[in-house]
Specification:
By secondary structure, the chain is an alpha/beta fold. The chain is 37% helix and 18% strand. The chain folds into 2 domains: 58 residues, no CATH class; 148 residues, Rossmann fold (3-Layer(aba) Sandwich).
């Protein structure tokens, strides 16, 4: 366990170093001796209050069209969280959503963001309960535990089960994966919004289930749905 934490810390440090621009490298003047070292700021926000200028705010957020802007200002950065990153792009993370029902218990029917035809072609049952299952760090939706959960849910009731596969953003580094779930949560909320508008799904019949970072991801989904004026029925994380 100690080695795992050490590896994650090392990966995070290397990732931060790789994102620093070349001009930020420490400059050592040989004419003034080794004691003359210029160490400029690396612009890693560690403020514990939101008091920043408009210019700072522009530099501390990244926008992804439909999915909005993501800040690394407070509360995403603080003295207790000195290192934070922007989410990677939607194209890089590229979450995959597979719908399973009793009519297709093992065959993935892909629900595609922005593609209402994927809803119409699917076996979606708008009046039945719907589960979303999200995996954690370094995982994929092809994990055995997810397949077993899909199978058991379908055995118990005639429901819809959607797996959220965000392997494109689930690691490493851990710090980057933590940032990526913010975007995946928003993207998943947009998918649910499409299911509501095009498929007649009732958000109060949706149960979000997450493991590890997937539980936090589910929380971001619920938060975004509130912005859409909808309320998710239940969220479970472990």
């Amino acid at each position: 366990m100690i080695m795992n934490h050490a590896n994650i810390l090392l990966q995070t440090i290397l990732a931060v170093m790789n994102t620093m621009p070349e001009e930020k490298v420490a400059e050592i003047s040989t004419t003034e001796g080794l004691g003359a070292v210029s160490m400029p700021d690396y612009d890693i926000p560690i403020t514990s209050s939101p008091n920043v200028t408009d210019e700072d705010e522009l530099e501390m957020k990244k926008c992804y069209d439909t999915y909005g802007c993501f800040s690394i200002n407070y509360p995403w950065s603080s003295l207790k969280r000195p290192v934070t990153l922007f989410p990677e792009s939607p194209a890089k993370i590229n979450p995959n959503y597979c719908l399973y029902t009793r009519r297709n218990p093992t065959e993935c029917q892909q629900l595609r963001l922005g593609d209402s035809s994927s809803v119409f072609r699917s076996n979606l049952m708008a009046n039945e309960k719907m589960y979303f299952i999200s995996h954690g760090y370094l995982e994929t939706a092809n994990k055995t535990w997810i397949h077993k959960m899909v199978s058991e849910l379908l055995k118990k009731d005639d429901v819809n089960v959607v797996t959220v596969d965000w392997i494109g953003g689930s690691g490493p580094t851990y710090t980057q994966a933590v940032s990526n779930i913010r975007l995946v949560g928003v993207m998943t909320a947009h998918l649910i919004k499409m299911l509501m508008e095009e498929g007649g799904v009732n958000p109060e019949k949706i149960h979000l289930i997450g493991h590890s970072l997937g539980s936090h991801l589910s929380g971001y989904v619920g938060h975004k749905m509130k912005e859409f004026g909808a309320r998710i029925g239940r969220i479970t994380g472990e």
